[in-house]
Structure formats: structure tokens, C-alpha cells
Amino acid sequence: MTDRASEPPPDEAPTPVEASTATEAPVAEQPVTEPRRAAWHELPVMLVIALVIAVLIKSFLVQAFFIPSPSMEPLLQHGDRILVCRVCLHVSDIHRGDVLVFSDPNPGPRSDRGLVGGFLHWLGEGVGVAQPQDEDFIKRVAALPGQSWEIRKGVLYVDGAVVEEPYLKLPTDTASYGPDTVPDGMLFMLGDNRLESGDSRFPPPQGLGYVPIDKVIGKAFVKIWPLSRVGWIR
Questions:
Q1: Is residue 37 over pLDDT 60?
Q2: For the chain, what are the domain ranges?
Q3: For residue 151, what are the contacts with CB-CB under 8 A and spacing of at least 6?
Q4: Per-residue pLDDT reduced to its tens digit, 8-36
Q5: Catalytic positions, please?
């Protein structure tokens, strides 16, 4: 017997694969995370954010309106939905020919809702679920503050010059009104459908009389419904 007999045979030596499995790979660290909140916990916050955004958009940027009468035909028909630009009043002047939405220049007495009731009603108006306290109207600017106007047999004159009105619905009113001068801070507003419009030609309660500029809500700029009538308002 020799000392060589005590060595392990060659085929019993550890294989490279066996040697590599002898040491375990380190376990990767897992990031620490907070427990996930239930979705219903986040829902009230999301609703409040959506409500605030809707109120801000309606109060300062764009507001949708429903056309309740034929006074602006043929441009706007009963049942049309339009968008009104509120911010436009702060970035551009009012011009003759603009189509404006404004609140009632001669409102009736208002009910006292109290502090909380008034806030809730304002909030309801902001999201479109409550009617405004004062009725809203839509007409076209016919004359600006300080301008003189007159209607002679249906033809409009401003500062002595004839105003072309291709937007009028025919037949139109051929009566005469005026002459008069628009007071400071006021607008002379007319409907395109003169035979069906109680506008600035008539004092209240038959019409609107002059409209204070601070009653203007915004400029109507586009029809959005029905789809067959979608288009710009000019």
C-alpha cells in the first residue's frame, strides 16, 4: 500500500458547478413602503379638488349657457348650448357687434339665504346645479357708452352713420326708435330677431333698457350643441 491510495479518485473531486453552489447569493434589500391607502379614503379629496377646479373654470374662464328664447335667431336658436368667455372681458375691450351674456340689469328683490345658504347657492351655481339669482340674457352690442343711436324704420344709425346688420332675421322690425345717447358705463343691446326681442329699445318692464357694463358676464364665442350647429359666434 502506498500513500497515494488514500487520495480521492479524480472522478470524486468537486465539480466547478458544485463549488459555485456552495455559497448562497446575497438577498436584495427591499425598499420600505408605507401601507397603501384604500381608494375610498382618497375619493373625497379627489371630489373636492374636482369641485374647486370646476368652480374656478366657471367663475373666471369659460361658462356654458342654454339659449332659452328665439331673440337671437338666426345666429342662435332656442335650445342651443354655447360657451361664454369670462376672462375675455379682462384681456380685451367690448366692441360694437360683440354678442354678450349679462345678468338682469333690473333684478327683482332677492331672498335672504343667510351666510351659509348664500355660500351653498354660490357653490351650486359654480357646478351648474343651481339657478343664478338673477336671470341671464344674451344680446348684441349695438352702441357703446357716449355713442348716439337711432333706429329709423328698422335701420340702425350710430353717431349718424348707417350700421350694416347682415345678421338680422328677416322680416325685421320697421318701427323707429330714438334718437338717444348711451350713458357712461352702459351698453345699448339689441337682439338679432328684432320682432321677438325685448332689448334696449324698450325701458323696463317691456324691455331691458340700457345694460350696465358691470352686469356683463362674458363674450359668447362658440356654439357647442347640437352638433349640427357647432360653430363660431360672430
A1: no
A2: 42-105+118-232
A3: 157, 175, 176, 177, 178, 201
A4: 444 544 444 444 444 555 555 555 555 55
A5: 71, 139
